[in-house]
Write a structure and sequence with these properties.
By secondary structure, the chain is an alpha/beta fold. The protein contains 9 helices and 9 strands. The radius of gyration is 18 Å and the shape is globular. Helix 5 runs parallel beside helix 9. Helices cover 33% and strands 19% of the residues. Strands 3-2-1-7-8-9 form a 6-stranded parallel β-sheet, with helices on both faces. A 3-stranded antiparallel β-sheet has the order 5-4-6. It binds adenosine-5-diphosphoribose. The site of adenosine-5-diphosphoribose has 23 residues, from loops.
């Protein structure tokens, strides 16, 4: 029987960047323990108190200068390089650690800290510096620059291509995500319902959606992801 390359779809969450030193959202002492979503991560918050919202993202953007990708990010870049089937990496993370580890085919469904967007033209540019409450946009006299981040209540990015990839997936892997935010939390249900798809969860603990996965690697991402990638490439 000819070796039929399999289509693989991977979804990562904040847990894959935890060991690089970036806070997750819902773990003990995580970002949402120290900040209110309604004050820093909604369009209404940006209208009400742009300075506070920009400060929250300025701090997280600057943090990226002090962290490095870890072995879990690197293992996924290796898998992408050596995988002979279709490979899609969807991340809920807004850090640039997957890119810096060498990942290429990457979909940032919640946006990116190192990009900003004109509020008037919606044009997007790379950006490393801080933003003020009303940093003028270079694209339109009436626009200002906002973080290129999908806030609560806004539509995540790349949803059409994501669901096309999920429909064709033979292997779906969720790494370091609590599965508490939708639509990402619904991806495993989608592939479960379509059938003919292996569902693997790699996480420090159980998640709300663990029951929907047929394989679990429980432990730190820097240990479990390289282990899983090695096993997958051996089995090829
Ligand atoms: N290795 C593996 N998994 C880990 C590790 C680790 N070292 N540390 C934490 N985890 C797991 C936790 O067990 C948890 O399941 O990572 C997950 C982190 O969950 P959240 O903090 O909820 O992060 P995430 O799932 O990415 O949140 C999704 O919510 O607030 C929004 O936009 C934000 O993209 C984010 C979305």
């Amino acid at each position: 029987m000819l070796h039929m390359p399999k289509n693989i779809v991977i979804l990562t969450g904040a847990g894959i960047s935890a060991e690089s030193g970036l806070d997750t959202f819902r773990d003990q002492g995580g970002l949402w323990a120290n900040h209110s979503v309604d004050e820093v991560a909604t369009p209404e918050a940006f209208v009400k108190n742009p300075k506070k919202v920009q400060k929250f993202y300025n701090q997280r953007r600057q943090e990226l200068r002090n962290v490095e990708p870890n072995n879990a990010h690197r293992a996924l870049a290796t898998l992408e390089e050596r995988w002979d089937g279709d490979f899609t990496l969807i991340t809920q993370n807004v850090d640039d650690l997957h890119e810096r580890a060498g990942s290429k085919n990457l979909l940032h469904m919640h946006g990116e800290l190192l990009k900003v967007r004109c509020t008037h033209s919606h044009e997007i540019i790379s950006w490393q510096e801080d933003l003020d409450a009303k940093t003028p946009s270079p694209f339109h006299p009436e626009g200002i620059l906002r973080p290129h981040i999908v806030w609560f209540g806004e539509l995540p990015l790349y949803m059409d291509v994501i669901f096309r990839k999920l429909d064709e997936a033979d292997i779906f892997v969720a790494i370091g995500t609590s599965g508490q935010v939708y639509p990402a939390g619904g991806f495993v249900q989608h592939v479960y319902m379509k059938g003919n798809c292996d569902r693997i969860e790699i996480n420090l603990d159980q998640s709300d959606l663990s029951y929907l996965f047929n394989e679990h690697y429980t432990g730190k991402a820097t240990e479990e992801v390289p282990k899983w990638v090695d096993a997958l490439l051996q089995a090829k």
